[in-house]
Amino acid sequence: MKTVIKTTDLSKVYTETAVPVHALKNVNIEFKEGEFTAIVGPSGSGKTTFLNVIGGLDKPTGGHVVIDGVDIATMKESKLFDFRMRHIGFVFQAYNLIPVLTAIENVSFIMLLQNRPKAEMENRAKEMLEQVGLSDKLDVRPSKLSGGQQQRVAVARALASKPDFVLADEPTANLDTESAFNLLDIMAKLNKEENITLIFSTHDHRVIERARRVITLVDGAVASDEHFERAER
Amino acid sequence: MKLILTLAWRNLWRKKRRTLISVSSVLFAVILAISLMSLIEGTREQMIESLISNTTGHLQVQDALYHDEPSMDHSLEYGEEVKRALEKYSGRIEYTVPRIQGFCLASKEMGSRGVYTMGIVPEKEEKMNGLVSRLTEGEMFSDDDNFAVIAEGVASLLELSVGDTIVLIGQGFQGVTAAGKYRVGGIVEFPLPEQNNTMVFLPLKEAQWFFAAPDRLSSLLLMTENENTAAETALKLMNELDEEWYAVKTWEELMPDAVAALEARDAQVKIFAWVLYIVAGFGIFGTIITMIHERLREFGILLSIGLKRAQLSVICMLETIFMSFLGVIGGIAIGYPLMLWFNKNPIQLKDDLADVMLDMGFEPVMPFSVAPDIFIYQGITIFIISLVIGLYPARKVFRLDMVSAARK
Ligand SMILES: Nc1ncnc2c1ncn2[C@@H]1O[C@H](COP(=O)(O)OP(=O)(O)OP(=O)(O)O)[C@@H](O)[C@H]1O
Ligand SMILES: [Mg+2]
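^ Those are the sequences you sent over. The predicted structure of the assembly is below.
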């Protein structure tokens, strides 16, 4: 299987603090195409930092992040913006959506930035909203959607432009149990159907079992990296 | 681009209260600037108008040498050439005020005193500066009378009252001694001591006879439509007149000291205006800063998912431009009728302040000007200021750290 992301000796030290914080310590991980991975670990173990660095939102202080044969650790900021927009999908913990755009406009947003043809864009956005079970909410603004629905729109947006992989930092943290499972099920389903690599971080033991690979970080280092065979749901 | 416009436009209407606050901050700045400048400009207009009507008039036709050496020998021959020139531009001239004047010694048994004797046409003076209404005792002469009307200060210094006789001695045309004895028929009161302590009025004809200068004037005052057209009219008139004999002077040339004082005042006003702009600018800045901080996370997410910093900056700029524009238009829309109202129904000053104004020869009101420049200039200035302030969010976007912004 094709390698989507490969990190070598990835490290990140925050030096703005009184005592430097080693948030990542020589992390070497490879993600293959189509994987569905959970990053777990105690609070402060470096999950967010790891996702930010491999997503090109933050610069590592050492090591490499190679995506599609390109090392983004040394890429210029102006190039990174474009690279992120074309290759990486993001889902954040909350407030993902653009408040002034409707659900379908939010899902189309990245494709709009990519200048995709209008018809293709609309079809794809509708298809994605259907996939996340929101085909009746196309023209609704985020403020009229529940927290779980908003996260589903965010997932639809992240996947709509068919990025190489999608990063989701604690996407279920603000959701009740039912919505959290529902979101993870949708993510698992899309991971299969669209064959998009999905990496999400979580605290939440309830949802870890949905992942097929679980990487545990402790104090910024990989403590374990396990693969599971999951029954289809 | 369409996406950017859509986002900017919808952002404006998303938080209506927030937009309203920003628009109002611009709007109030505009109204504040307009009101103050309208008052300042109104005062200036009032000062100029009062100066012009109480002293020089808009223009004066004089003998070519009179301005440098104002003597009776340099008086103006008010003949055909002057009349023809005035006739040609009668459309530009509202009315003329002829005067003949000179220093004299005024005496009664008690003593004597230097006075300024001026031959006038009472109706014209009344029209120009309300002289007749300044009468406190007696009556104003008409053209064919031959009594004098004196200022109240002269009357008290020489202990003269209505019915007494005043003796005037001065120098007439071509060195002739001017001397005359006149009954005091009326007393007028001036607010300014320079006038109140020196003026003695005679009917024009009588004064010409007194100065041995029939058909001559010291100067012929011209009142034009307003002070702005005066200089142009002066040039046109001069084209009709022989430079060797005649001069047409504008109020600015006739009152260089007053013009300098006005310029000094304008410089002060400029400083004051900048203080005002800085205060208004900080007001607008405050609202914009609060707005930006409310939106940092939103910006962080937009930048994370692929919107470029330049695109987000443009969105911020568009929002600012639109809100400033709305604020400026609104400010003028409210400010103009407001100033117009105060212009037509001036605020009356009371008590001490009113007395001071009256003493200086002004009407005791707060004069508001409605000159279009004020509205255009203040509107544009505040618009530019708010645009410059609007650069702050755009700049902030360029420096925003996405990771920490999206995390908050
Ligand atoms: N901007 C920063 N400046 C300084 N230290 C930071 C910064 N961001 C994170 N850290 C520190 O780096 C370490 C890793 O933080 P990180 O947010 O990646 O952990 P996490 O696993 O995502 O935690 P959580 O589960 O609470 O979200 C922590 O000790 C944190 O305090
Ligand atoms: Mg985290």
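The mean pLDDT of chain B is 88. The CA atoms of residues 22 and 287 of chain B lie 6 Å apart.

Shout if you want it in another format.
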